[in-house]
Amino acid sequence: MPSNSEDLYNQLGESYEKSYGDNPGQAKILDIVLQKIPPKSKILDVGCGTGKPMAEGFAQAGHEVHGIDSSQTMIDIARSQVKGHFERCNMTEYKAQTTFDVVLGSFSLFHITRDETYSMIFRFAEWLKPGGLCVMNTVLADYLVKDPKLFDDSGECVRHYPHPWMGNTYDITLFTRTGWIEMFEKAGLTFETEVYAPWPATDQHGEEELYLLVLRKTQKEPLFGPYPLPPSYGGPRKFNAAGVLALAQRMGGNETSRIEELLKNSKKLLDMNEPCRESLPYPDNQFDTVMANSSLQYVTDLDKSLHEMARVVDSSNPESFIIVTQPGPDSKVMNLINKVAVPLSQDANFDHHGKILHRASEIFAEHGFGNITVRRVEEVCNFPEKDLSARCSEAAKILAGLWFIDDPGYEKMQQALIPELELHFRDSPHVIGYQTVTLVARPTKS
C-alpha cells in the first residue's frame, strides 16, 4: 500500500480518471460556477489530479487554469490533456503569486489532518480575490460514518477513518456538512449553494454520495479571522516573561529573518516587544518604523496604544512603516489555549488576535497609514521528547504557563490539555503550529 498521498496518486494515475473523470455531480457544480464568474477568470485547482473534469471544464470555457498536485504522474497527465499551467506542489506549501476568481478543491483534502484542513480553508480564502468563489467537492462524514463514537469531541470531524478505496484501505479525515460550513465561515467565506450527487459503485470504490459546495469570499482579509469578529479582542493578558521565554525557546520558523529584511533600511526604529504602553514618551513623527511583535494582547486600552504607535511614526516619509505581528487564526497553540486553558481561568475571555489586527488596520489608516499588507508566517513549537507522556507534559506546562501560571486553575489546565495534546501529537508527532500574521502599514499612496 502506498505510504503517502503522493505515492498513492502516482500509482493510481489514469485509473483514477477512469473512476472519477466523468462525474455528473461535478459537471453540475461546474455549470453553476461558470454562470457566476466573469470571462477569462483565473482558476486555481488545488489537488487537480489529471485535470478532468473540473480544470478541463474551466479551460474549455475560456478561463485561465492553474493546477497544483503533489503527484508528478497526475501533473504529467493534466499537462498532456488540459490547457493551463500545472505544477507539482504540496498544497500545504504552495505560495500563490496572484489571487484567483475561483479556488477549487475536488476531493483533495481527505489525506491531511484536521488542523491542516482548517489551515487550508484560510489559505483558500487568502488566494481568492474579494468576491471570488471557493468550490469544494468531498464526501461527508454524515454519509460515510455511522458510528457516533468515531466522531471527535466537536461532533463534526472523524479522524483517521479507515476507508476502503481504489483497492486499498486508507486513513482519511472527514467532516460533517456543518463542520465544513463552519470552517469556511470562520475564514470569511459565505455559503451560496450545494449539490448532493449519488455516485454508483464501481470495481474501484463503493457507492458514494458526493457533496459539492460553493461559497463566496465576503471578508476582505481572512487572516483577521476567525469570523465573526467579537466586540473586543479579549485582553489584556498578564505579561509573564518566563512563560514567553519558555515558548520562544521552542520556536522554529522564518519570522525573525523576514522581519530583519523589512527592518534593514530603518534608521529610527521603536521596538515595542515589551508590553506596549498606552502613552509613549516621544514627540509626533519621531520614528520611521514602529514594531510590536506579539505584544498588543498585554495592553489595557488597545485603541489608545494603536493611536500612539501611529502618532510617533512620520507618515510624510514614504519609507516609514508600522509592523504588528500577532498569532494567526489557525495557530494551534492559541486555539488550544482558547479551547482548554481559557475556560478554566479566572478571566475566561477568549483571545482574538485577528480583532487586534483588524483594529490596527483601521486606526493606522486614520493616521495616514492606509497602504496595508497582511501575510501569514509559518512557525512551529518543537517538542522533540521521545516519550509521548513527557512530550505532552512539557507542552501542557508551556501552553498553560504562557499566561496562567499564577491562575488558580493552572494545574487543572495542564491536566485538561494532556488528552488534547495526545490527540494532536498523533497527527503531528513533534510540533505544534504557531502560525503568525504580520501586518505592515505604510503611508497611504496619494
TrEMBL record:
EC number: 2.1.1.103
Gene3D superfamilies in the record: Vaccinia Virus protein VP39
Example of a GO biological process term: methylation
Entry keyword DNA repair: no
Pathway the protein contributes to: Phospholipid metabolism; phosphatidylcholine biosynthesis; Lipid metabolism
Domain Methyltransferase: 43-132
InterPro entries documented for this protein: Methyltransf_11, Methyltransf_25, SAM-dependent_MTases_sf
The keyword Methyltransferase is annotated on this UniProt entry: yes
Domain Methyltransferase type: 277-313
Pfam families: Methyltransf_11, Methyltransf_25
Keywords for this protein: Methyltransferase, Transferase
A GO molecular-function annotation: phosphoethanolamine N-methyltransferase activity
Domain of life: Eukaryota
Catalytic activity: phosphoethanolamine + S-adenosyl-L-methionine = N-methylethanolamine phosphate + S-adenosyl-L-homocysteine + H(+); N,N-dimethylethanolamine phosphate + S-adenosyl-L-methionine = phosphocholine + S-adenosyl-L-homocysteine + H(+); N-methylethanolamine phosphate + S-adenosyl-L-methionine = N,N-dimethylethanolamine phosphate + S-adenosyl-L-homocysteine + H(+)
PANTHER family, A to Z: PHOSPHOETHANOLAMINE METHYLTRANSFERASE, PHOSPHOETHANOLAMINE METHYLTRANSFERASE ISOFORM X1
Name recorded for this polypeptide: phosphoethanolamine N-methyltransferase
Record organism: Aspergillus steynii IBT 23096
Organism placement in taxonomy: Eukaryota, Fungi, Dikarya, Ascomycota, Pezizomycotina
